[in-house]
Amino acid sequence: MLLEAPLAIVDLETTGAHASWDRITEIAVVEVDGGRVTSEWSTLVNPGTGIPPAIQALTGITNDMVADAPDFEDLAASLLERLEGRVLVAHNARFDYGFLRQEFERAGLKFQARTLCTVKLSRRLYPEHPRHNLDSLIARHNLACSARHRAMGDAQAVWQFLRVAAQERGAEAVVEAAKAVSKLPALPPHISRDLVDAIPETPGVYLFYGEGDAPLYVGKSIEMRSRVLSHFAADLRSAKAMQLARGVRRIEWRRTCGELGALLLESRLVKDLLPVFNRQLRRASDLCGFVLLPQGLRLARGEQIDAGTVGELHGVFRTRRAALEALRGIADENGLCLQALGIERAKGGGGACFRHQIRRCAGLCAGKDSAAAHQGRLAAALARLKRIAWPWRGPIGVIEQDRERDATEVHVIHQWCWLGTARDDAEVADLLQGARRPRFDLDQYRILSRHLAGSRAGGGARLVELG
């Protein structure tokens, strides 16, 4: 039975939530053999970086406490020996396993283990309960925890949960549930596990190819390896996901320095490759918006929208039809004439339009409304549509750093258009010099506006003005 197999119940405390750039500050391992605890071991770890104040307050682990603790590299070999051959059990196992794999890789060691996530186990055994975090389990099952948010205290609480669950649900039920939630993903026959293991647990973009090297899917993640493996999990719920998993013949991946770089690269690759399983981020060739002119209105479309014109747009729509439907609604609300707006053709003999007869048009076409008043109402109505204003004086650079590789990427952006990504000052200059009128992309705008909201670059990035 799984609970009688050698277990390593693991809990980690870390400087943050991202295995790519955060580090471990404390490790605890409870070894279980034949259903009994045979060893308990824990140690503080010097993360080689400062612990954020909020994390210090949560865990009680301070910079002074870890100053003289061993580095992970110093204890990696003995920890690997302790974990080898055991099922790694953790509450949110993906988090702990991801951090351990990343740290072992930095130490030049390969670590792979079968895992059992007690969050998933609790959901399967206790579906009637809405919450399955460790605090909820402690309260629900009256578990003892000597020190919450310290590695050994939490690991001991997880072991207690396994024993209580066996008493409440029965040992056989726990074993079957554990088997179901701890299955390793079954990779397609054309994909080797060594190939997947080589994918770093870092931000980046991965590409799936099918028969004849046809692009199937482009995806992104801040933890690429785990995300790739999730595509082949046994509990895939949709026919589309299963079809994609069965069709993969080759996998490529491209590492980025951060999340923003992965999002932008994914958006560009989807439009360049048009993979069959990507429904979003596909090319929007009919993208359009309204430009207000002194003499009326113009619908700017596709290639007419670039860094030079995007600031003049009122509203951005994926299709001409959507834009015209919006304009009809504006016309109805403001008594505007569709003939004057260029949506409907005037009758051969001229005169009032049909909408004036049903009192939706104020009568510019019939000489009952002035051109100045009509233009004023049009301008006021368009002003209520969202405009894509660029809040900086010129182009900006969003800098993301990969401290593990000592690598830097600068995403050069102007008027919400991504000009490209540079790795040094010379490449930044080339991008700025070569960007005449870059094409506006609505998906990239949405990515950038989220990351740059309030003049802040998300995901640990920083922003600089380039001119």
Descriptors:
about 475 residues; alpha+beta; 4-stranded antiparallel beta sheet; Nucleotidyltransferase, domain 5; GIY-YIG endonuclease; 5-stranded mixed beta sheet; single chain; 17 helices
Layout of SSEs?
Blueprint lengths: L6 E8 L9 E10 L2 E9 L8 H7 L3 H4 L5 H12 L3 E4 L2 H14 L8 E3 H8 L8 H8 L9 H19 L1 H11 L11 H5 L6 E6 L5 E7 L2 H7 L8 H9 L2 E6 L3 H15 L14 E6 L2 E6 L11 E5 L2 H15 L19 H4 L13 H13 L12 E7 L4 E8 L2 E6 L2 H10 L7 H10 L10 E4 L2
Parallel strand pairs: 1-4, 4-5
Antiparallel strand pairs: 1-2, 2-3, 6-7, 6-8, 9-10, 9-11, 12-13, 12-15, 13-14
Helix pairs in contact: 5-8, 6-7, 7-8, 12-17
Describe, in plain words, how this protein is organized in 3D.
The chain has 467 residues and is α+β, with helices and mostly antiparallel strands. The chain has 4 domains: 2-181, 2-Layer Sandwich (Nucleotidyltransferase, domain 5); 193-273, 3-Layer(aba) Sandwich (GIY-YIG endonuclease); 288-383, no CATH class; 396-465, no CATH class. 37% of the residues lie in helices and 20% in strands. The strands form 4 sheets. Strands 3-2-1-4-5 form a 5-stranded mixed β-sheet, sandwiched between helices. A 4-stranded antiparallel β-sheet has the order 14-13-12-15, sandwiched between helices. A hairpin with a 5-residue loop joins β6 and β7.
